Amino acid sequence: MPPSKKNGFKARAASGNRLDEADLAWVAGGLGGFAPPLPPEGEIGWGGGEAAESHGGRSAEPREGMPDGGAAPAEAGNHWPAMELGSPLPPPDGSGIASYADGSVESWNPDGGSTLSSPDGTLETHHPDGSGTILHPDGAVSSWDGKGGGTWTGTDGSRSTWAADGSGSFTGPDGATTRWGQDGSGDTVYPDGTFDRWDARGEFAHYTANGEAVDAESYGTASGEEVHEDGSIDAWHVDGSGMRTDADGAIHAYNPDGGGTTIHPDGAVEHWNPDGSGSATFADGSVSTWDGQGGGGWVGADGSIGSWDAEGNGVSTNADGSSYTWNADGSGTSTSPDGSITRWDGQGGGATVHPDGSVHEWNADGSGHFADAQGRITESWGPTSSG
Questions:
Q1: In this structure, what are the phi and psi dihedrals at residue 13, rounded to the nearest 5 degrees?
Q2: Can you tell me the mean pLDDT for 172-191?
Q3: What is the pLDDT of residues 339-373, one digit of tens each?
Q4: Which domain, by its residues, includes 46?
Q5: What percent of the chain stands above pLDDT 70?
Q6: Is 111 domain-assigned?
Q7: I need a labelling partner for 110 at 20 to 30 A (CA). Which of 119, 242, 297, 327 fits?
Q8: Quick one: which of 343, 306, 352, 311 has its CA closest to 328?
Q9: C-alpha distances out from residue 95 to 67, 127, 128, Å
């Protein structure tokens, strides 16, 4: 811009007079080609600018370059006036405030910090160093330090902490505190002063309040137990076995070797083994089994039966006499109760042979034909048009 134009721009900007298109182009050039976004409607405030005048508070679509995608506000009372050629430019120091259509309000500072207030009462605060806090509507508080660590404090008095190295702690409403280290070792201290300790290898010991170790065998004969507010119960033994009773009555029993059994309220029973195999007997009497390698089978209460393998092949026979075979490559065969047999190649082609001997055949390109029992083609069609 010529010096005279530049001087004219400065004079208009200083006096608050409106800027023309050339002025805006000169400003954009001075900002390295970046001009502040010009939302068509609504209001968003820029730090350092004069108090914004209302432009009706109408909603607008998100605009590129605006914070978080730039959803322009939907209500009046915000502070970023709609801009158009001829409007004075607010100083772009990086601060601002935005009101969104859902009622949330976000503000941000030039240093990178920000806050977000949601209609449900949640308040998030983010600091330039990556740390922050969340005040939840129920009064719980979450915080993080920007380095991988953080805390959570519940309204029931429970509290969790965690560190970037994997260590952490949890204190329950009853005052019992469990701590664990980066290597997997840890301890639990109970309100009565007794405590448990374990090392990184999983070796476990229980101690009295006086610090005396309790014999593992005798300790294992007495189950620890915790009753939750919803009525569910957890019980455990030092040998690694345990049991959980859900609020709905389901019972889960866990074995030290990793196996276990679940009895559901409807009478269904599920059993699993350490190697991943298992079985389930459902309330209607049907049974499903699996081998832990991806294969399995079932026998239905109605007499149906099926099986599958880890490669994706399988077969089933239904109570009505129909059957179905599928292969890993997508091909397969089905037989209907009326005797019709359908085969498909997994590539889009296939054929159905009807009980009277007639055939319906189709190809991946959409072409196909009908043939009668004598093999005479009675109808055919070409490939499906792509246009």
A1: -65, -40
A2: 85
A3: 999 999 999 999 999 999 999 999 999 999 999 99
A4: 36-127
A5: 71
A6: yes
A7: 119
A8: 311
A9: 10, 14, 13
